[in-house]
TrEMBL record:
Family the entry assigns: Belongs to the HSBP1 family.
Protein name in the entry: Heat shock factor-binding protein 1
Molecular function per GO: transcription corepressor activity
Subunit structure comment from the entry: Homohexamer. Associates with heptad repeats of HSF1 trimers and probably also HSF1 monomers, and with HSP70. Association with HSF1 trimers and HSP70 coincides with attenuation of heat shock response and the conversion of HSF1 trimer to monomer.
Lineage: Eukaryota, Metazoa, Chordata, Craniata, Vertebrata
Any one Pfam family match given in the protein's UniProt record, by short name: HSBP1
Length: 54
């Protein structure tokens, strides 16, 4: 019984590690695409340019 739980636990941890690598790759790809498109990272969705304030 203990061996079965250990095997399942190892499989879950392996899947979590795999998903973490995929997320890291996705974040890198998004950053590359944003750089190619000339888009700067914005901290908030509703950020307005300084020239439009007033």
């Amino acid at each position: 019984m203990q061996d079965k739980f250990q095997t399942m636990s190892d499989q879950i941890i392996g899947r979590i590690d795999d998903m973490s690598c995929r997320i890291d790759d996705l974040e890198r790809n998004i950053a590359d695409l944003m750089m190619q498109a000339g888009v700067e990272e914005v901290e908030g969705e509703n950020k307005t340019p300084a020239s439009n304030k007033g």
